[in-house]
Amino acid sequence: xxxxxxxxxxxVGSWPMIANAVAGAAASMGFSVLSSNxxxxxxxxxxTLHERVVVDVPNSDVVKxxxxxxxxxxxxxxxxxxxxxxxERGRCTVCASGKGLSKRRLTEIAEAVSGxxxxxxxxxxxxxxxxxxxxxxxxxxxxxxxxxxxxVVIDR
Length: 156
Prior knowledge:
Strand content: 25-35%
Low-confidence stretches: 38-47, 63-67
Strand order of the largest sheet: 2-5-6-7-3
Order of helices and strands: EHEEEEEEHEE
Number of helices: 2
Mean pLDDT: 77
Shape: elongated
Structural class: alpha+beta
């Protein structure tokens, strides 16, 4: 007997959990983690950044009790700086900025990276839950569209 299950990820967790997902997504997409909890990355001033956009990380809520105000993670690649942080509503946001890029292009980059963050978060939560419930992953496949397919069996 088999079942197909499609999961819609929702990011609800503490800042350290989300920061780990950001770090994982950054590494998989060729970004470097510059810092955490800083106002401006070293060598970059707000005056040199021509365009800036802010995008919500989809379906994200941070457990407010487990975070300090102003927490932020900064990643960068090819002149684009992305700042992940928590807004006043407790939602995770990403601010994309870069010199010589349009707002449209910055939005595309921010949405691609935030989507990967959600995927990383959901993947690690799912794997932990499967292990806790005594399931074993027997096959894992990453499709061309970056979706992940798992085949699991229950350990008896």
